[in-house]
Fold each of these.
Amino acid sequence: IGDCKLPPLPYASDALEPHIDKETLLLHHDKHHAAYVNGFNGAMKKLEEARASGDYSLIKHWSREFAFHGSGHVLHSLYWANMSAKGGEPKEELLEALRKSFGSLDQFKKQFVAATNSVEASGWGVLAYEPYMGHLVILQAEKHQDLTVWGVCPLLVCDVWEHAYYLKYQNRRADYVDSFMKIINWEEVAKRYTKVKGLVGYR
Ligand code: MN3
């Protein structure tokens, strides 16, 4: 994995005035977003070192750092790109999808505003495409660092809720995970990877 770079703002720093002032925008982009990019690069480097040495004793810490900074980087990149001085309204295919998923554009807007206003403490209001059932969803991201990098498409998952292994393995989760690793359908994983790898990100 290469080093991530802070993407430049897609407009002048005063372009969103008076809605978002220049000072806020510059501080937010140049300091806050930059810190996420640096933190993400740092976490990736530490994970690379762990893979090289085989020492995973700090895996919980670096997984958290990876998720916190990675989500911060992805979400801020989307945030800059999904604003513009022009504003406007959704049209055509997107409008149709919003209507299908939320009843009407107005109902979408009301739910998005209500959900975003009531995010507990720090977080984000998010409109997302849920690719498994194929519809649009509105989510509240409370603390974006909760162990995911927003925007990921899962390719391979291993259920470690106790119900998945307790009858046979009791408390020996590691034995169950070892067994799981022997029965992975890699063709299915590859199929999913082929499907999603062309998805366009925030760029
Ligand atoms: Mn921010």
Note: DSSP finds seven helices and two strands in the chain.
Amino acid sequence: MKIGITCYPTVGGSGIFATRLGVELAKRGHEAHFITYERPVAIQDQDYENVYVHLVSVVEYPLFKYPPYTVALGSEMFRITGQQDLDLLHVHYALPHSTAAFLAREITGKPYVATLHGSDVTILGSDASYMPVNTLSLERADAVTAVSNFIAKEAHESLGISREISVIPNFVDSDRFKPAPCTDPEANNSNDVTVTHISNFRPVKRIQDLIYAMNIVTKKAPNARLVLVGNGPERHRIEKLVDELNLGNNVEFTGYRSDVPNLLGCSDVVVLCSETESTPLTLLEGMSCGLPVVATEVGGIPEIVDDGVNGFLVPLKHPEAIAERILELNADPGLRKRLGDAARATVMDRYTIDKIVCQYTEVYEEITSA
Ligand code: GMT
């Protein structure tokens, strides 16, 4: 099949996932045509067979305070659908992509599927300034999927969507992210744990809670380390907090890294303390590497983490609870191994590429044969 894919090309889980899905579809003989305003970051440095990128050009004009991106995107979707003879469009993150696809279908008649990821439902999609058109573009889609039951439920409740939404969780590359020994000679070789957190440093991640937790942890485990991978708007505030709490020797900021599997190979625990999440890729990556996770009991996280079985769930905004679980894992390598093995088994059972990609191709078959 020839699939037009639209996503945010920059760093963000929905764009990363959409790009990985496109690459996997291409490996399986489909054509993936990305229609975006920039080459997606996840394929920045590499070309793949059957993967194409079509850039949306948005005309600047002095009259515009807000250039009409949705119109430009819809027009490019229309143009590429005809030029490449696409079978369907798959848009990731509803805002404003499903609206552009809705407009394009008015002209091409080709179906579109919209995948809901997170704030396109929970924060922005239900805001009064976007909701009527966002909801209409989803109600009228040929198929709607959500990456967690939580997001599907929220779409029904907050966006008022009445149609069926299929839940297809995100996948992780379990061959790339797998249990492996640490190969970094400079890694923490003390008896205390290395904790890893990976994010785009947005406020929703509440990294400050993890810093306060580390302030408690290091009182009992002075060589415990926190590795913060990624970059974003909160980074300076978090760096300042680390300085204020005198945690400079325990906390490392790596910036964006392409060797995340290596970093996880030298980690003992993955923590995610966000205010909300759907199916966070970073949790799946840590679990796939056989690491126990400590994560807030919010959004779609409890659909992945079974408390005390493959990780620990902690209440939101509760640094003490995070610290308690990290210290428990620090003190008990057997517990780390038991939860980590179960985490890897969870991934192999439910979140591998093969288990997820075919669920999308089934949706494509259904909407193109209708
Ligand atoms: O919704 C967002 O805040 C952004 C979105 C993104 O593009 O990064 O993240 C969401 O989608 C990811 C991919 O499915 C999930 O891994 C994240 O959990 C989800 N984030 C939130 O719900 C906050």
Note: The pocket of GMT is lined by residues 8, 12-15, 17, 93, 117-119, 147, 170, 204, 276-281, 299 (CB under 6 Å).
